């Protein structure tokens, strides 16, 4: 009887995951640069992560700060992608790539999230629609 109960519970959780995946496909994890102010996008993404990952109040504050920093860096990269010219001619300063900025953001979130929350966050990132990153 206990095995049947465990099976039913597992099946229900799997069903919820499949239905949730359908709705997660429609939700955008981040907004491209230029779609609202950084503050507005920060609020939207933080609210989304808070709701989907059930973040505590302290986690939310840290995620909001990290998200703001992440979106500000993405906006800067949208203006000056790749290499940035230095003051003297012939010398170039390397800027961060989008991949580096995303890795820094993921690392910052990994420090805040529980292992289960980070796993769910990773799943959400992998299953978002193309073009919404």
Account of the 3D structure:
It is a single chain. By secondary structure, the chain is mainly α. It is 68% helix and 5% strand. The protein has helices at residues 2-26, 38-53, 57-79, 98-112, 115-126, and strands at residues 83-85, 92-94. It has a two-stranded antiparallel sheet with strand order 1-2. It is elongated and about 60 Å long. The N and C termini lie far apart (46 Å). Keywords: Signal. Residues 1-26 form the signal peptide.
What would the keywords be for this entry?
single chain, 133 residues, mainly alpha, two-stranded antiparallel ribbon, 5 helices, 5% strand, elongated, signal
SSE blueprint and pairings:
Blueprint: H1 2-26, H2 38-53, H3 57-79, E1 83-85, E2 92-94, H4 98-112, H5 115-126
Antiparallel strand pairs: 1-2
Helix pairs in contact: 2-3, 3-4
Q: What is the total number of structural domains?
A: 1
Percent in strands: under 5%
Uncertain parts? 22-28
The major β-sheet equals: 2 strands, antiparallel
Percent helix among the residues?
55-70%
Order of helices and strands: HHHEEHH
> Based on CA inertia axes, which overall geometry fits?
elongated
Quote the average pLDDT: 76
What's the total helix number?
5
Calculate Rg over CA atoms.
Answer: 19 Å
How many beta strands in the DSSP annotation?
A: 2
What is the spatial order of strands in the main beta sheet?
1-2
Kindly report how far apart the N and C termini lie: 46 Å
Class of secondary structure makeup: mainly alpha
